Amino acid sequence: MYIKLHVSSEALKAGMISRETIRKSVNHLVQAEARGMKPNPPPQQFEEIINLRKGLRTSETAFWGFNLSRMRARHDMFGYIKRYGPPQLFVTVSPDSAGTYSIAFTAGELSRRTIEEGNTHLLPNQADRKRIASEYPMQSALYFERVMTVIIEVLLGWDQKMHEPTKGGGIFGIVGAYGAAARTQQSGDLHGHFGV
Asked: pTM for the whole thing?
């Protein structure tokens, strides 16, 4: 799971929770579910897990692929439709992490020399690229984010920092607004939906 955090000391507290505490907390919930019962209040030591989850819930609305981000995107899109009218364009983008050499390269599985030589016999085949992508989910998420950034900033001409169209716009001219959401495909890759 890739999370791009821009948070305060709460994130640092979250980073201090040990794996063992998380594992015990999950086991507590699994055991209660296996008995078909609602879990009792967790022991005091798991309180930090509950606080972590509450803190992440709000920030999840800003990250590609989370249920809460899709819920927020849906609400945003309804607002855009009310203000600007129906979208003029609907696009689905499905970057194939198993089809790119980018992840293999950034994960360190592919040397720059191999790429520069252009020796296709040394490049990983699609099965190897798929294996590498599954072994490095962080690189796959970063690849998805790079693709979405190109679409938003170059094709749509939208300045993500200023939250407004760039001067001159993108290939569709000046975009007044867009809505986007992402979800996981069966392959494990993310794909995005855009309403422009």
From this structure: 0.61
